[in-house]
Amino acid sequence: MKTHPRAFVQLCVTALSNGYAVGFARGTIFKGRTKGLCLPGLNCYSCPGALGACPIGSLQAVLTSHEYGFSFYVVGFLLAVGALCGRFVCGWLCPFGFFQDLLHRIPFPKKLRRLPGEKALRLLRYVILVGFVILLPMFVTDAYGLGKPWFCTYLCPAGTLEAGIPLTLASAALRDAAGWVFRWKILLLILLILLSLVVYRPFCRYLCPLGAVYGLCNPVSLVRLKVDPGACVQCGVCQDACPLDIQVWKKPNGTDCIRCGKCVRACPCGAIQAPFVKGGKTVSTKG
């Protein structure tokens, strides 16, 4: 059985999303017309190579403005992509998700399936979505009525990796101006990198507000998993194959699934189907 080339798709999407190579060489940001369009994954607007905008960053830009209170475009984009793909975006189209996948491939003495307090940790992404992405930018404002993009400023590791580090390396002025916030975000990025060596996609699992939005759409998205109850014997092979340790036969379209397709290929009964990946060989479960 051939392995589906998900990594190749991720590589191509990452390269296309950040195709302005001149920006990395010059330490500048692309300002063309496509910069006003949202990309589906977490890809920082300020990345020197980014050709589009991050939907979370765009949402915060609207919420922090005294001129615009709501963006039908950004919210509509998130709902449309979520309804169509759900967290398929996370598994196939997100550059920062791809970065974590590469890190987890690095050999480590012991890999963990989950962290202590896993259920509570997975709720953090909703706390961050509601608190740092929506409420704080809307209600914590300055004397001019302007808010701050709290998630982008204090938490987003994608922004640190894709924008903060390249731009700071290219500009002596930015290096001199870098303060405690930049040092804090570098520390956070380092912690996530180290954690990614041990547990699969810690940022996606516990912290990503974009994944939280798409995850809420998973149960109703068009791109989804289907489990044939007549063929499934609940053997647990799908859960063993799932890097997020999901009981697929119980919740094939739960909020955590990133549609990587590993469960589909691993199922010995051919009981799991998905439109984006070819399943494994179906075998008889009788006698």
Structure description:
- By secondary structure, this protein is mainly α.
- 51% of the residues lie in helices and 1% in strands.
- The chain has 16 helices and two strands.
- The chain is globular.
- The relative contact order is 0.15.
- The model is unreliable at 282-287 (pLDDT under 50).
Rg: 20 Å
Assembly status: single chain
Q: Would you tell me the structural class of the helices and strands? A: mainly alpha
Q: Pick out the low-confidence regions.
A: 282-287
- Tally of helical segments: 16
Reading side by side through the largest sheet, how are the strands ordered? 1-2
How does the overall form come out from the CA principal axes?
Answer: globular
Mean residue pLDDT: 92
Describe this protein with a few key phrases.
single chain, 287 residues, mainly alpha, two-stranded antiparallel sheet, 51% helix, globular, disordered C terminus
Task: Tell me the layout of helices and strands.
Elements: H1 6-17, H2 21-26, H3 55-63, H4 72-85, H5 88-92, H6 95-105, H7 118-121, H8 124-139, H9 150-154, H10 157-170, H11 172-177, H12 180-198, H13 202-206, H14 209-217, E1 226-227, H15 237-241, H16 262-266, E2 272-273
Antiparallel strand pairs: 1-2
Could you provide a short overview of the structure?
This protein is mainly α. The protein contains 16 helices and two strands.
